[in-house]
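Q: Second attempt. The first request was missing the SMILES, so the protein and adenosine-5'-diphosphate are both included now.
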Amino acid sequence: MIAPVVRCLVVAADPLLGAEMTALADDLPGVQVVGVVAPLRAVAGRLPPCDVALLADPGERGGPALRQLVAGCGRPAVVLARSAGVDTYRRALAAGARAVLPLPAVPAALGDVLVEATVAGANAATSPAGRVTAVLAAKGGTGATSTALALARLAGATLVDMSGSWASLAALLGCRSERSLADLAHVGEGLAAAVASAAIEHPCGLRLVPGPAGPEIAAALPGGFAAALVRDLRAGGPAVVDAGGGAFAASREAAAAADRALVVVTPDAPAAAAGRDLVTTLARAGSADAIRVIVNRWSRRSELSLRGIARTVGVPIAAVVRDDADALDALADGRARLDRWPGRMQTVALRELAAEVSP
Ligand SMILES: Nc1ncnc2c1ncn2[C@@H]1O[C@H](COP(=O)(O)OP(=O)(O)O)[C@@H](O)[C@H]1O
Ligand SMILES: [Mg+2]
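A: Got both inputs this time. The predicted holo structure:
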């Protein structure tokens, strides 16, 4: 039994399916069906007052897509599907739905998923948002990769290689991979599942999503791909995206779409000026509040003070990592020993930030 009354709205294009879903919900004590609306109306968000949306699965190719329906409804959504396979679940959950119910179903099964959907709704309201962090630098060799790797290790986050570098993270970490992000550029709706399938697991436990293999492929990624990727990553656990030198539109798009962007600069005037230009570009595409600076390779002898860097770049400093060639040479040699990564100095510098990355 569900108490008090749960008001359900049925969203279905097919009137027969709409009637079947209505009958199912009507048979369940404690549930009130407030109406049946067409998908386009749901996408537009013009809904009667209700607590849960029951969405007929539009299928992989149907329009509007499930994601648009869930977003348009703006309340906990349950997807009802005639042929629900593993793919349907992945697609539905990636789209933000709370549960999937295969049809035909008995009213009790709907009761179970409604409880699941409304309980998950209460939890979701209290769980902190902001799970995708992009790390990028205004020029190569600044420390984007070493910082992203350290944050991912400390936070237990998935590391996503969007740097477009010839030297891929997978190779650096000694992982072999069959697929990369570039293979996923056209999968559209099933992106989250595809990302999950492309991920490789390093023996130390780090999950890595291999990036586009080289600059040509990074440059050829279609517009919107990186933003969709970030949205799908958000549906999973915490993720850190290595957006490299921000040289590719797709890398910058990922950084602008992420919940926070960390711009790595070294403490010298050219790096700070380049950092400011990168921050300005990102702020135009996303929001300036989400951008902070990481000062890398800092020492007392540095050309600029921390205050000077913050002033030049125009956003606050999130962390300061000292110059420590001994600890970081492993990366320069192309052999990062992950079981010993990050070293003590980097750990101390990035610990607080890592706690934000993985709330
Ligand atoms: N804090 C640091 N102290 C000393 N060397 C560093 C530091 N951070 C990075 N490095 C070195 O700089 C090189 C470039 O770093 P990397 O993270 O690959 O830069 P990017 O990804 O921005 O090109 C690495 O080989 C690493 O050894
Ligand atoms: Mg790099």
